[in-house]
Every structure is written in C-alpha cells, then in structure tokens.
C-alpha cells in the first residue's frame, strides 16, 4: 500500500494526515482538500482555502501521487509552481500552498504494484506446446503418457506416480 504524510499548521496547531492509495473518501481513489465538509475529506477552517480546493490521488501506472486543482479562481502553489489546471506529481518534501495554509509532504512510501503471475512458457505458437511429467525427485521432464505415469523416472528411478504435469515445447 502506497501512502504519503501531509503536515501543516492552522491557527497555531500542527496537524498531520496520512493518505493511502486506496483510502476511502468522498470520491473513490481521491482525497479532497478544502473547507466544505460535504465535499472534502481533509478540512480546513482558514477562509483563504476554497470550499473544494484540490484533490490528491495515486496513479498506479506511474507509481506516483499527484495533486489536481479543483478551483480555477484560487489555484494552489505546488513546489513554487502555480497549478491552474491539470495534475502535478508530488514527492517527499513537496510544499503545497492552499490560500494561506502551507502543507508539506513529510513522508512518502510507494509500494510497487504486484506483478501478474508468471504465464505459461510460450516457445512458439500454441501448436508447439505439449504436456510433460516432471519428476518430484530430480525434476527431469519426460514426455506425457499414461504409460510414463506408471513407470519410474528414467534419470533417478523415482516413482512418477506423484509427478507434476508441466508444459514443454514439442521438438
């Protein structure tokens, strides 16, 4: 699970909030910041912050958190760049100014997306694949047949009764 930590000060109080890539919120997959409790997940009382100001979200393909402006008349300042429209990537140490409130990304942890399971080997078109029996002892692969399952491994002599079925390329 990827996450980032925001820290800011409002009316003399330091506040901290952890945002997670799959955190439930008002909009699935997005954490909205502003003053309006009906629209936002992180609330500010400072009147210079818009009712619905920005949203932060995680982009799995880019493996990165981004910020998006939601208020054209009151754009945020992100790392010194005025974000009028579109998205900007966030990094550890990023500074975000919403009105008179300055937030900082104090920590960021990106957990790589799980890799899809390994696929079956493809040594050519499907017609070149066949089944084989793999010896549980020495892992030698023999051509599949009912007869081979009743025999011992030709390499080590272990019974093939408990062998694994595997894909092999046809010669």
Would you write up a description of this structure?
The chain is mainly beta and 171 residues long. It is built from 1 helix and 14 strands; from the N terminus they run E-E-E-E-E-E-E-E-E-E-E-E-E-H-E. It has one helix at 146-149; strands spanning 3-10, 13-20, 30-34, 42-43, 54-59, 64-69, 77-78, 81-82, 87-89, 95-98, 101-109, 129-134, 141-143, 164-169. The strands form 3 sheets. A 6-stranded antiparallel beta sheet has the order 2-1-11-10-7-8, with no helix packed on it. Strands 4-3-5-6-9 form a 5-stranded mixed beta sheet, with no helix packed on it. Strands 13-12-14 form a 3-stranded antiparallel beta sheet, with no helix packed on it. A hairpin with a 2-residue loop joins strand 10 and strand 11. 22% of the residues are buried. The model has no long low-confidence stretch (mean pLDDT 87).
What secondary-structure arrangement, pairings included, does this model have?
Blueprint: E1 3-10, E2 13-20, E3 30-34, E4 42-43, E5 54-59, E6 64-69, E7 77-78, E8 81-82, E9 87-89, E10 95-98, E11 101-109, E12 129-134, E13 141-143, H1 146-149, E14 164-169
Parallel strand pairs: 3-4
Antiparallel strand pairs: 1-2, 1-11, 3-5, 5-6, 6-9, 7-8, 7-10, 10-11, 12-13, 12-14
């Amino acid at each position: 699970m990827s996450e980032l930590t925001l820290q800011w000060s409002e009316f003399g109080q330091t506040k901290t909030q952890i945002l997670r890539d799959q955190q439930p919120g008002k909009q699935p997959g997005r954490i909205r910041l502003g003053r309006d409790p009906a629209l936002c997940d992180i609330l500010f009382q400072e009147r210079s912050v818009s009712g619905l100001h920005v949203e932060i979200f995680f982009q799995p393909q880019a493996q990165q958190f981004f910020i998006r402006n939601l208020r054209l008349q009151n754009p945020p300042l992100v790392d010194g760049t005025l974000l009028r429209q579109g998205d900007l990537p966030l990094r550890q140490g990023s500074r975000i100014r919403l009105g008179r409130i300055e937030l900082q990304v104090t920590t960021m942890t990106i957990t790589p997306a799980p890799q899809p399971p390994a696929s079956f080997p493809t040594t050519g078109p499907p017609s070149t694949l066949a089944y084989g029996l793999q010896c549980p002892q020495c892992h030698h692969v023999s051509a599949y047949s009912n007869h081979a399952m009743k025999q011992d491994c030709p390499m080590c002599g272990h019974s093939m009764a408990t062998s694994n079925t595997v894909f092999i390329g046809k010669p």
